[in-house]
Write the structure tokens for this entry.
Amino acid sequence: MIDAARSVLENWLQRSGIQAIDPIESGLSGAAVFRITTTDGEMWALKRYPIHTSLSRVDEIHRVMVTAKHNGCDLVPQLKRCSSNNAAVADRSGIDDGQHVWELAQWVAGEPWAEPIGGGDLFTRDPSADAETERQRHEVMSRGASAIAIFHRSVRSLGTHQQPPPCVLARQKRLQELIPQMNAIMASDRARIEHPRLRFSLQMAIERFRADWNHVADSFLATLAALSRQSVQTQIVLRDVHAEHIFFADSHGGDSVTTRVVTGMIDFDAVRIDAPATDLARWISSFLPMCTDVHSAWHSVLAGYRLESSLNEQQEVLAKHVAQVSAWINLANWASWLLLENQSFSYDDEHIAQRIDHWIRVIDKLGR
């Protein structure tokens, strides 16, 4: 894979100017990311999109990124245009090598928020909230929501639409697909899952389904049906913005208090037209398992967003419904993929177990 990266880089950089190509762990989408260090000390992110991503789709994503940057959203990384003599790729930001589409973008400094080590174990009693960690978590939630609002504001020039929210219609469709699968999911043979932690996490998920699925599924169908009849403002949104996709750095004030500031955003693969509420629902879901109070968590997120952009009550209510429905759908998706469809993933079983544990905790937190 390094050889392929080195080859495609020649569309942007002189081979003699490349000092290092370092693979970076990426998510479940099938993308690959490399940190490129030049002999001049510059750093770039080389991204190989998943195999079924078309060049035209990457062009759409890049148009959104360029628009956001042009309209003052400095949190979006600058794309590098090709300097190749090949007329077919000259001045393009996306390159198709015949199998994958690639891009080269400014490296985003900073790190995503990470919970203190040992604080996220689902099966141990939640520790008493450390006041400083709680303060930092809420600060990150609020500032991240402000960053999302800045992005939303910067791409509104691409158009707004009044329509039933696509996030609702998609969840309505997926819930209707999952309902007839649930009996088979609950009756499935978990013993064939070899990894003990993953098998145990799936068992915990099955217990939640046995206890509550029929009730919540009926309730969600009614809620989604009502929401699907509403017309809300939609625009280009991120659709997959979670804790790993917004980067922060520490800022030290004169009073010796350390705050976190947003340094940038990554991963725009899912950008499409939808309700802004869907980004807030996805963002807060990254933090809910460790929050001591759901109400205060929503307050931090909504207040942070409203510092940079308006958000009406309709969007706020929609965000809360989407967060709750999505948690159950995500948990059911993992159970269906693993127990019925026998899908395999690039991540190891331990990481998948952690994902399942996360959604169980979101469900438990929102159920209080």
